[in-house]
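Table S5 (text form). Sequence records supplied for joint modeling of the seven-component complex.
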Amino acid sequence: MFRNQYDNDTTVWSPQGRLFQVEYAMEAVKQGTVTVGLKSKDYAVLVALCRASSDVDSLQRKIMSVDAHMGISISGLTADARQLCHYLRTECMAYRHSYDTEYPIKRFVESLGNKMQATTQSYNRRPYGVGMLVAGYDVNGAHIYQVMPSATVLNCKSMAIGSRSQSARTYLERNMESFENCDMDELVCHGIQAIRGSLGNEDLQDLTINAAVVGKDMPFKVLTDSDNQRCLIQAKGMGKPVVDEFVDAFSEKGISDDDDEQGPSGSGMPRSDDVSTTGS
Amino acid sequence: MFRNQYDNDTTVWSPQGRLFQVEYAMEAVKQGTVTVGLKSKDYAVLVALCRASSDVDSLQRKIMSVDAHMGISISGLTADARQLCHYLRTECMAYRHSYDTEYPIKRFVESLGNKMQATTQSYNRRPYGVGMLVAGYDVNGAHIYQVMPSATVLNCKSMAIGSRSQSARTYLERNMESFENCDMDELVCHGIQAIRGSLGNEDLQDLTINAAVVGKDMPFKVLTDSDNQRCLIQAKGMGKPVVDEFVDAFSEKGISDDDDEQGPSGSGMPRSDDVSTTGS
Amino acid sequence: MFRNQYDNDTTVWSPQGRLFQVEYAMEAVKQGTVTVGLKSKDYAVLVALCRASSDVDSLQRKIMSVDAHMGISISGLTADARQLCHYLRTECMAYRHSYDTEYPIKRFVESLGNKMQATTQSYNRRPYGVGMLVAGYDVNGAHIYQVMPSATVLNCKSMAIGSRSQSARTYLERNMESFENCDMDELVCHGIQAIRGSLGNEDLQDLTINAAVVGKDMPFKVLTDSDNQRCLIQAKGMGKPVVDEFVDAFSEKGISDDDDEQGPSGSGMPRSDDVSTTGS
Amino acid sequence: MFRNQYDNDTTVWSPQGRLFQVEYAMEAVKQGTVTVGLKSKDYAVLVALCRASSDVDSLQRKIMSVDAHMGISISGLTADARQLCHYLRTECMAYRHSYDTEYPIKRFVESLGNKMQATTQSYNRRPYGVGMLVAGYDVNGAHIYQVMPSATVLNCKSMAIGSRSQSARTYLERNMESFENCDMDELVCHGIQAIRGSLGNEDLQDLTINAAVVGKDMPFKVLTDSDNQRCLIQAKGMGKPVVDEFVDAFSEKGISDDDDEQGPSGSGMPRSDDVSTTGS
Amino acid sequence: MFRNQYDNDTTVWSPQGRLFQVEYAMEAVKQGTVTVGLKSKDYAVLVALCRASSDVDSLQRKIMSVDAHMGISISGLTADARQLCHYLRTECMAYRHSYDTEYPIKRFVESLGNKMQATTQSYNRRPYGVGMLVAGYDVNGAHIYQVMPSATVLNCKSMAIGSRSQSARTYLERNMESFENCDMDELVCHGIQAIRGSLGNEDLQDLTINAAVVGKDMPFKVLTDSDNQRCLIQAKGMGKPVVDEFVDAFSEKGISDDDDEQGPSGSGMPRSDDVSTTGS
Amino acid sequence: MFRNQYDNDTTVWSPQGRLFQVEYAMEAVKQGTVTVGLKSKDYAVLVALCRASSDVDSLQRKIMSVDAHMGISISGLTADARQLCHYLRTECMAYRHSYDTEYPIKRFVESLGNKMQATTQSYNRRPYGVGMLVAGYDVNGAHIYQVMPSATVLNCKSMAIGSRSQSARTYLERNMESFENCDMDELVCHGIQAIRGSLGNEDLQDLTINAAVVGKDMPFKVLTDSDNQRCLIQAKGMGKPVVDEFVDAFSEKGISDDDDEQGPSGSGMPRSDDVSTTGS
Amino acid sequence: MFRNQYDNDTTVWSPQGRLFQVEYAMEAVKQGTVTVGLKSKDYAVLVALCRASSDVDSLQRKIMSVDAHMGISISGLTADARQLCHYLRTECMAYRHSYDTEYPIKRFVESLGNKMQATTQSYNRRPYGVGMLVAGYDVNGAHIYQVMPSATVLNCKSMAIGSRSQSARTYLERNMESFENCDMDELVCHGIQAIRGSLGNEDLQDLTINAAVVGKDMPFKVLTDSDNQRCLIQAKGMGKPVVDEFVDAFSEKGISDDDDEQGPSGSGMPRSDDVSTTGS
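The corresponding structure-token record, covering 1960 residues in total, follows.
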């Protein structure tokens, strides 16, 4: 276990050129519930799984509006997310004030990434423990961006982060070609299906979904509970998503193959993660 | 005991993506006496258990008024709570001065959460060792918020924190549907019953209760000793609360099942905590 | 002895949610000589035990005047106390200058507590090693407050801190109902009796007492040596205080039961302390 | 393993006069995919290998435009690269604003190097984990510069950095004399061939190439996907590059000879690296 | 040797509520040569033992004038003393400038104590390694104050600090009643006798004394060598001081009983020290 | 290996009064290739050995011009050298601007030394890892100065630093009397011969030399490649330099006697180094 | 070897009240070559031993002029000395500018001592590694001061510091009575003899001396090489100095008795050092 010598400080490199503290912060994202983002030509949607709890009054906290043309869905530490969201809203207001126009989404996520990068190179703060999917619509069309604790910013067609999100990503990749011309409801349904895919044999019965949409002539809007319910029913009509037959057949084994259980003690991060997180 | 390598600093992530120092600070909340918050359509009440001590002159310190429309009940380190309360009162006064209206409660608790989040990401301070229930009433109605050392902010229908608070939460969940139309006294009585539930076989005889109410046309008010006494008698008339038959029958075993005894060395935090504390 | 891993820094929580450095600073208070505070309807008095030393010129340093309506008695590090007292006097002068009235005692002790709280949450300073009893009189009557290194502030009817103070507290609790209508001299005598109670079989012969009073139409005044002597004689006339027969009979055993000898290595702090120091 | 005593801090020298933390940051560059830069008399080109991923929307992030006459290609942590690129663009704009001319490339890379040097001598930040190839064209002609985490700046005729880049460098050195009079497309093809050389037996089929050019009367331009495709086909027409027959014949052994597998635990860095990274 | 875990930092409390670094700094005082201070009704004198050294040109550095009505005698690190003395002179000048009168000695030593207290509570400085006796005369008469590294300030009738000072203190206590009406020369002689008492069987022959006086109508004055010599002869005429017969008879044993040899590894500091250094 | 306890921090002295971190930084100089400086009455020259590398475009980086009358040759970390050189150029420009004359070389190198000294006494930076030879010409004639990581500044007649520089120094000392009246080309040739001496049996064939001159009516000039080539041929005509017959005969042994291989683990630094580096 | 626990930080006291880091810095002074200072009624001279080195151009760096009436001779780290000397010159200039007179030497060395004291009480810097002898002449006559890393300032009749300086001090003490009426040349010769005394059987043949004088109507002047040579010859005429017959007879044993070999691991510092360095 030699690696432990290098994992106590964000500013210490391991001999293999890794920053373990940043990788550990990535693990915090995997402990949050799954959230997905996907887009068609004209719309971008975010769908998040919420755990039901009878004594909680409102559930909208996993998807947050940032500006009229943009919002985020988070997985990880909610306190970190809220603090970042507060920063982002202030940034957007300042941009509107200075330039009298909305913040271009590409520049916006790069600014967010730079803010998060600072915590990965500084002695006296820890990396943020939250991953974000940004859905927005600007003159360049609909966008889904993934921003992670490692401060990597990825322009995605669709993406899922959080607990067991690998299965959700598999669903999204298999159905990606059909998203292009979906309307909003269809996109939300695909997002729900992707989440259902990540849940294995658990049924959707006792789960709560939270969704938001943004797009052409459509400001960012968090859906109401009735909208969520309508989409859930519509998604159920699409049948149980077939994510990975092998996994379904041998679900225990399947779960242990999942990257969530592998963690940083594995021999390496899977290739697809390699692209989306730190390597380049 | 490998985890110890990562639990000496707030800014160090464990390989599993956990912040142990933040989790330890959550334990400080469990060492305080229990306090509950619950609300009806028009009112929000806080009830706190106070340990009697003959040489102490006043007991109101567990519930503190913050502004005319809002107050807090705390569990954990009183010194941290008092320092935060001082900050909160200043914030409310500044808000009134700037906007000539009361601080909207949702924004208020988010600001409080952001202040506490800073201590969880900074090298040179420790996380606060106090949990808070915020009861308030504004244009959006009555609110109960839970704010914890992890800086999570939870909009609750009812909530209990502190020593053996799980049993109190169980009582609250079972009776939640009846709170909606309660008047203030009934709410306080339910709060007392919830606290009685957390005390197992100990009788209420030698215990002291402190309560506060806020609501429609009703500024935040800490009840007088006589009011407290009246409510105690009224609550006794409701009979001994049945929280968990199994626990009552085998109280020793029951207590050892409680999350208070489990602490951070358990295999994980219970699911319901998972929602309310760090994960999302 | 796993706890040692968490006791080197004020900003590190133990897995049980304790701050060991703060608890250790509480021990410094127990190493000072005993001091007591008690009050009647109209007066508050402080009595402190001073060790006699032939080469020392003046003994008044354990009780210090802060303002015309308030003074403190300390136990622990005198250097810390003097520095705090200097701060407090400056605060009172500033308050008078700003508001042209005396500092309300409740607000005063909260401000003091907040100053001390800062040292329990900061990386680069240690908690103060001194406990204080504040005696004051304002429009709300006579007050005795206890302020400890943990920054807890307790509004007391009577209180004793310092070496073997548990026995003094026992005396105070047993006689509390008779304080209400005492005049100043009687209060001082009760204070002396409480201190005598804490001394076991040692006689009062070779000990020196320092006392101070404040109250209605009576600015804070440290008594002269002749006043002290007069009260000592009066107190002796009240007979040897019966604190705890069992302790007197088996004094060695009795002392080892005392919380002063127990220290932080015990299984927990006694319940009454639990209230007055950190828990809430 | 004595060396470990000196590799936890950027500001600590080893007894041999090495800065291990800087060397470890160099390893992060080797974990990125390979990128090459080469130049003719009038043009400088950058070619980078991108891993394909179906859910990613755009791939241009490995080559970034900095100013009209200059751009960079990176290998290592993308978040660090993006933050540096943001800084570089601001610097170029400021230079244009001050001097009304473009930033001379030699001075530009020295300024960049000095910014990176600061992180290798400072206690509270880590060295950047990214290597860069800078391609530019100014009054002194076309330039390829290599800037590494050690803050060394090297004026190159051609260079390759990233995973298995040694083989790409071998290809470039063998064909260097033919670059002088190449046109842009030919340069890009040579770049592609160098990358192919680094891939061993993997075919180019499922890989994506990203290229950029700058030169005489030719502002820095990132090629479009169709341009990339055209060059790929043209490069395939040049046949499989013969990098190292021995390596091809015994590819496993060949790979283990590669500097990527050697890492900092080897007996020393290869001589050519010695020149280009830290020694002088 | 568990205590070692808590003795590396001024800001760390031991489990017993002690600050070991402060106690260690007290040891530095014991390593200096002995110095005594004593006073009559109208005069205060300081006498210091100086080790003779043929190559040193002047010996006045152990007693330093601070202002016209005040001076100090030091034991411990001279560099720390000189730096403090520089500070004190500046303070006195500033006081005279502001209030056009001399600095009251009680306030002066409290200000000095507060300056020293800061170093016992701060992370980045060490406690001062010097003890001081302050002799002064103001409207309240003659004063001898002891100020120690622990920042305690003690108003004394007479005091001795430094190597083997316990014996000197014994002499002073035994003869204290005779000081009240002494003239200056007699006081100096008593001071010399106290120092002789601390030297056991060593003769005064080859030792050098340095003395200073201050008092009614008598500004602070360091005596000349001839004055010193005159007083030495006068003191010799008083005979060998009888400090502790037992110690003289068994001097080896006597020395090992001395507090200088006991150091901080003893089971506790002697009671008299307890009063004068940290406890209260 | 007790010494390791004191070699992790620039601000920690070893019990022998050594600063190991500074000595380790001196080792970094020995890892660079050799460079020599020598002077006649009117000229000062710098000659540096450059390792050839086919993919590098320019080699002048080991000798850098600072001002019209001065330049430096470096051995060690090039990034540190470049950063220092940038500082030096700015200093020279500022001096010219302020005083309208060139920076006197003695004051210049002392200012440089003071800048480097700061890094040897400061907690948060490491000592520079580069040695420098400064060649200049001012009203006091030609100068060669050696400035090392220990911040020592040495006014030399001739000097060599870097890998195996001891042999080069031996050559220079043996031929020093002949330098006084050399012309520039002869000085460069002697410099080349000194470098050849340090290379043992390696031939000069495949090595590259970089040289620079400054002197009377001769601004600092880095020689062109053709000038270098001409001098190389001229130097070859002088025959193989005889540095140390014993070393040549038993070169392996000879090399192991060299101070470069000895490093800081040897029993001490050789006497001549003792003079030129830290002791005085 | 328990003492090692307390010797890593300037701000940490050992249990015996010692500051090991300061003592270690004292060792650095002993590693420099010996230098002596002595004075007559009207003159003060400094003499320093310089190690000859053929490639060094100038040797005057061990004695430095500070102002017209003052100069220093150093032993230890030259870089620290140069930085301090730069500071001292600036101070003297500022003093002249403010008061239009020369800096009184006593105040000057106290200011220097205070500057050095700051590094012995500060966390982030190390104590200076250089000892200094200050020779000056002002209205109070000729002065020799010793200033050491411990920040002690000693007004001396004569003093020697550096390697094997104990023997030089012995010579000086034995001949001190003859210095009073020496002229300058005689003083320099005595200084040379003291240095010869410290060299044991080594002959003076191949050693270089550097001397400086200051005095009545005689500004501080570093002697020229011819002056040095003249004095050397004159000193040789005085015969070999007899320092310690025993040491000469058994020189090996004699050297191991020397304080240079004893270092900080000895049981204590010799008494004479005790006076001059830290104790008081």
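Note: Residues 245-280 of chain C have pLDDT under 50 and may be disordered.
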